[in-house]
Amino acid sequence: MRRKLLLFMMITLFSLSFTAVFAQDTPQSTDEPAATEEPSGGEATVLPSAIASGLNNPRHIFFGSDGTLYIAEAGQGGDIEAQGPFGPVKAGQTAQISTVAPDGTQSVVVPNLVSMDGGFGQIEGPTSILVTDDSYWITLGMGTQEPIADGALTMAVVQIDKASGEIKQNIDMSAFELENNPDSSQEKVSNPADLALGADGTLYIADASGNTVLTWTADTGLQLFASWPVTDSPEDPQSVPTSLAIGPDGDVYVGFLSGFPFPYKGARIERLAPDGTLKETYSDLTLVTDILVTADGTLYAVELANGFGDSGYNANTGRVVKVVKGDIGVVLDGLNYPYGIAQDNDGNLFVTVDSAFLSPDSGKVIPVGGM
Question: How high is the pLDDT of residue 18?
């Protein structure tokens, strides 16, 4: 059952190098490749020039209102021997939130976040970043059983003041999971994976290990918005919500990785009304790690790979797709472990690639489509 806990959570820390940002239209969708019974690894595609490279384990990305790109990086683990939720790990404060300014200036805005290496490239750490006028909101993913240093938080969502760097809110996701366990799993582990902010200021939080989406406001605290019961059947894998987006009509979209054995076309996106009622399901997706809903309601998804084989997740088989009820159009494929997607102020799409199981400094952010 550990597989549901996002074992793909990737590799190493980074140093950014910036090249020219591509200003281009979203590419036209192409026909979906023919389905295969047992998908396998593919050939590496020729990528567009990166706007950020030298990244270690980049997860979700976010464009601020001023055009700054924010990147959540899960780090390289570290040298501290610690106990993780499922056994010994090596941990350190090697994760961070980094930026690329519109003029190409590189910087780190939140350093020294906890990164946990469970072995075999299974790196856990911050996954998502959301930026408001005065704050950074960060998901601090699954971590060690005990803090590795004073103030070294994990399994939480934190609000950090931009100006001072002080923590303004520490939302303890682990405590909620231990007390409530909404999915009735034997494993009471939290792994906050993504954030979305409603028009009324409500914060939505996807917990990949809790199989839940929670809401938070300063007045109400954490509240359960939706949950998906845990299962252990290969024919009915666990849901594992990895990603969130708010549509222009206020509907909440939830993207699911699915659990082991990560079947081809076994993942989905659900569209929920503001009261949590299921309105629509988009099926036949695989290993969804991020979703995006644009201002005109267009839905995009990132698929990490086309399946899981004897050597792990199939390399060079990830893609970005446009999702319509009953139709999936390929926007860009042949990607090696893509993860997060974001749209800049000009409407251009960008995705993180080479985000797992690779050597240090391998991750990139590239424009979607175009060469």
Answer: 23
